[in-house]
Known about the structure:
Elements lengths: L16 H14 L4 H15 L8 H10 L5 H14 L4 H10 L4 H13 L1 H12 L11 H13 L4 H8 L25
Helix pairs in contact: 1-2, 1-3, 2-3, 4-5, 4-6, 5-6, 7-9, 8-9
Amino acid sequence: MSPRGSRTRTPPPALDAAALDRLALRYVERFATTRGKLTDYLRRKIRERGWEGDPVDPAAVAERMAGLGYIDDRFYAENKAMSLTRRGFGASRVADALRQARVDDADAVPARTIAAQGEGASALAFAKRKRIGPFATEPADPARRQKQIAAMVRAGHGFAVARRIVEAGPGDVPEFNDAVTLEHCDEGDPW
Length: 191
C-alpha cells in the first residue's frame, strides 16, 4: 500500500472551449505573457488533457485575449528589454529573450531600440556585478581577461564593448554615449 493510501488520482477531465478560456484567463492573470507563449501553453494543456467537443484553435484564443487587452506583446517586449538591460544584459541577449517569448518583429523593434540605446550602461552594470575591468580590485592576467570577455559576450554585449571594458584598469571607467549613465550603477541600485 502506498503511503497515501490505495486511492489513485483521477485524471482531469478533457478540455472544451469554456475550460480552455478559463485556463487562458487564469494564465494571463498570473503571468506577463505574449500571444505566442499563451498559444504554446494552451496547446500543451490540450495535449495533456485531451479535447472534447468542437475543435478550437489556441492561437485564436490568444488573439481574443490580446483583443481584450489582457496581452500586449509590445508592452511585454519593452518591459523585458528594460529589465534585462538594467540587469546588465546586452542587445543580443534581449533579442534572444524576445525570440524565445515569440514576440514578432514589429512588436520587438521598440524593445531592441531600448537595448541598443542602453548598451554601454548595461555593459558597465554587468562588469560591476561581476567585478570586471574598472570594477576589479586588481588588473587581470591575459587568460582571465579572455574569460571575462567571453562572459560579457555571452551576456549579449558586443565584442568591442566587452574588450573596452575588460581592458580598462581598476577605477578607469570608460565613457559611453548612452541615454543611461553610470550614475544609475550606484551601490544601492539593484544592478
